[in-house]
């Protein structure tokens, strides 16, 4: 029996996080298992039994939020009880932070830790800065998923949450939570594999977008897929996917990659970046006769694709699976929240294109099941996110993994809709010096097919405003973004109680629940999805007509990605953002700029807010004539005000609620 099989046969201690769907909002905060007692903020009892994810704050500060984790208020207890093998060591000093040192925890939300991941890989991120208040991956014997927490509503009711027994997380007795969830098998029929939505009325307008390729000797762009000279099967698969002509990022990106060049590409949300990198990679592998072999114990993929969230990497994998349908090239996906054993068995069946989130990739490589010596392509989707403070250490670890070809010997491809200049400079470390920078339209610009509206609100009127809007949207698919996981549950519950079929997705939900939520949203069973930033980037969900920023993010790039969940591939969409003068004014200058560049009406009050919002506002107003944005040109532009010029993770880390 394999090592990982063995691990997973021990009796699972079933845990679950808070489910949020209209199947029963009343379930949301009930103690599902009844075995554990929650921390009760009212009477000060501490949790016992499997007391929840340790969520400590450094500096011994009390946990003031209404949402109380199962640990002692200052995190000490959580820390003490969590010293398992994978003991987390907070970096110390910066207070706050959830030291959840799981390498698997690989989402857009911060959940990581700096140290202590037993096999030498750290979880990512911000969380681990919690001084004393961290907790181990081994996690408080209460492990992840057992939320011994409570939720205190405005009127101070406390709902206890506990375990529910879904068999997803096991404890091996070594205080190390183990994920045993295996997702249902994927449909194999062609109709499902090639199911797609139609490109929209504005698809042809892509041709008018300004494109700038900088760097030496860029190859000629292609105008049609025929010019890409794809293998017959690949060509058929492209047609079956409903692709008639390439989008600009494909017209330029495909020949650049096919010519063997490194690329840093920035193109607006929903404009086909995924196929821009997948098609030339698959074409090369197919024309070279690469074929997956199940007979090798060590799998050595030719391409490695990394993305920041589980749902996004799964989506990329599904695209790779679609385009390689009927060929010998085999993509595989690995990401957290799913049984590692299951994923390793998939890898063992043959793997040419390995898609993964950073933590899980490091894990499978560390286990010696995947070798990198044959690697030719290293792809970072949402590259600016992959290189910001949250993920950069993992990326460095990844390129430093045994056998990883040097940047001279591999091709490195980076794609995003946003690319802050300082991240571009960092990214250059991973690229050959002669990389090409491809800018389609305004770097960091919002999709022009999204109508952007702003509504001034006070923090207390948001819920009513949301309800009003949702009453007019009816059953149209709407994503509602909030800043915190607890607020995601709270708003989802509120909407359910108001009879709006709603589900939610965020990093504290088990993977099974996240998949269910996305499935219910896609199918229309729940036309409203309340989400944290975990769903802000890359997700391509058909028919999302509306995005509502219930809470504005504190970073302009995040805003651009969020509203890009609608208005995709030439379709139109609407984004409505609640603007709270007290909380959001720091974002005003960047918002004004994004709106004007996307030819949207700028409300006068927003402009005023931008001007009055401090010294930086004026200098951040729109600049005319801006287009090219390659940082090597000397940083002529930046669409990043003092607010947004920090990488997302950095700003987010300063937000107590962004976990
Ligand atoms: N040439 C094409 N013709 C028709 N549809 C396309 C074409 N290229 C991509 N699409 C479709 O457009 C949608 C958006 O593509 P994709 O998800 O790759 O966008 P993206 O640029 O990566 O967006 P994001 O920045 O949000 O990650 C997908 O459904 C994809 O299948």
From TrEMBL:
It comes from Myripristis murdjan (pinecone soldierfish). It catalyses: ATP + H2O = ADP + phosphate + H(+). Residues 223-251 form the DEAD-box RNA helicase Q domain. Its EC number is 3.6.4.13. InterPro entries: DEAD/DEAH_box_helicase_dom, Helicase_ATP-bd, Helicase_C-like, P-loop_NTPase, RNA-helicase_DEAD-box_CS, RNA_helicase_DEAD_Q_motif. This is RNA helicase. Residues 82-97 have a biased composition (Basic residues). Belongs to the DEAD box helicase family. DDX4/VASA subfamily. GO terms for molecular function: ATP binding; hydrolase activity; nucleic acid binding; RNA helicase activity.
């Amino acid at each position: 029996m394999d090592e990982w099989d063995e691990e997973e046969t021990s009796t699972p201690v079933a845990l679950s996080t808070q489910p949020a769907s209209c199947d029963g909002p009343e379930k949301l905060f009930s103690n599902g298992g009844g075995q554990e007692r929650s921390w009760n903020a009212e009477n000060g009892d501490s949790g016992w039994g499997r007391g929840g994810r340790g969520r400590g704050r450094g500096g011994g500060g009390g946990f003031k939020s209404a949402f109380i984790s199962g640990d002692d208020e200052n995190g000490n207890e959580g820390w003490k009880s969590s010293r398992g093998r994978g003991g987390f060591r907070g970096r110390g000093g910066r207070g706050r932070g959830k030291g959840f040192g799981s390498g698997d925890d690989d989402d857009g939300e911060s959940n990581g830790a700096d140290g202590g991941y037993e096999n030498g890989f750290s979880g990512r991120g911000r969380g681990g800065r919690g001084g004393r208040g961290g907790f181990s991956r081994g996690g408080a014997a209460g492990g992840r998923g057992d939320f011994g927490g409570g939720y205190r509503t405005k009127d101070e009711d406390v709902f206890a949450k506990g375990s529910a027994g879904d068999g997803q997380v096991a404890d091996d007795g070594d205080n190390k939570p183990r994920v045993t969830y295996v997702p249902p098998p994927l449909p194999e029929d062609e109709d499902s594999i090639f199911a797609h939505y139609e490109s929209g009325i504005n698809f042809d307008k892509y041709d008018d977008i300004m494109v700038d390729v900088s760097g030496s000797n860029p190859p000629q762009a292609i105008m049609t897929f025929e010019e890409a000279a794809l293998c017959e099967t690949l060509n058929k698969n492209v047609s079956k996917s409903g692709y008639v002509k390439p989008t600009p990022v494909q017209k330029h990106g495909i020949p650049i990659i096919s010519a063997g060049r490194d690329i840093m590409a920035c193109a607006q949300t929903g404009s086909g970046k995924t196929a821009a990198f997948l098609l030339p990679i698959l074409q090369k592998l197919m024309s070279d006769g690469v074929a997956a072999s199940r007979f090798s114990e060590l799998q050595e993929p030719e391409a490695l694709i990394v993305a920041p969230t589980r749902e996004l990497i799964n989506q990329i994998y599904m695209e790779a699976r679609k385009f390689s349908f009927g060929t010998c090239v085999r993509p595989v996906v690995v990401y957290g929240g799913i049984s590692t054993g299951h994923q390793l068995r998939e890898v063992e069946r043959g793997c040419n294109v390995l898609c993964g989130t950073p933590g899980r990739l490091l894990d499978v490589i560390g286990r010696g099941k995947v070798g990198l010596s044959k690697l030719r392509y290293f792809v970072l989707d949402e590259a600016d996110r992959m290189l910001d403070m949250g993920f950069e250490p993992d990326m460095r670890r990844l390129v430093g993994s045994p056998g990883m070809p040097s940047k001279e010997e591999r091709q490195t491809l980076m794609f995003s809709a946003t690319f802050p200049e300082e991240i571009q400079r960092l990214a250059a470390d991973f690229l050959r010096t002669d990389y090409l920078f491809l800018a389609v339209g305004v770097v960091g610009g919002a999709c022009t097919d999204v109508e952007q509206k702003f509504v001034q609100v006070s923090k207390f009127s948001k819920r009513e405003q949301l309800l009003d809007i949702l009453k007019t949207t009816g059953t149209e698919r709407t994503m509602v973004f909030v800043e915190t996981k607890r607020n995601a549950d709270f708003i989802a519950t509120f909407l359910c109680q108001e009879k709006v079929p709603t589900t939610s997705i965020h990093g504290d939900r088990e993977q099974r629940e996240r998949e269910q939520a996305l499935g219910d949203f896609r199918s229309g069973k729940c036309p409203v999805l309340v989400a944290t930033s975990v769903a802000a980037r890359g997700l391509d969900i058909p028919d999302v007509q509306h995005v509502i920023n219930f809470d504005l993010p504190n970073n302009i790039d995040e805003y651009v990605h969020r509203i890009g969940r609608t208005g995709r591939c030439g379709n139109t969409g609407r984004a409505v953002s609640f603007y709270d003068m007290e909380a959001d004014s720091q974002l005003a200058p960047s918002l004004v700029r994004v709106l004007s560049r996307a030819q949207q009406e700028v409300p006068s009050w927003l402009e005023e807010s931008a001007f009055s919002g401090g010294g930086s506002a004026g200098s951040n107003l729109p600049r005319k004539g801006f287009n090219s944005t390659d940082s090597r040109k000397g940083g002529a532009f930046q669409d990043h005000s003092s607010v947004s010029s920090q990488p997302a993770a950095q700003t987010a880390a300063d937000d107590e609620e962004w976990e």
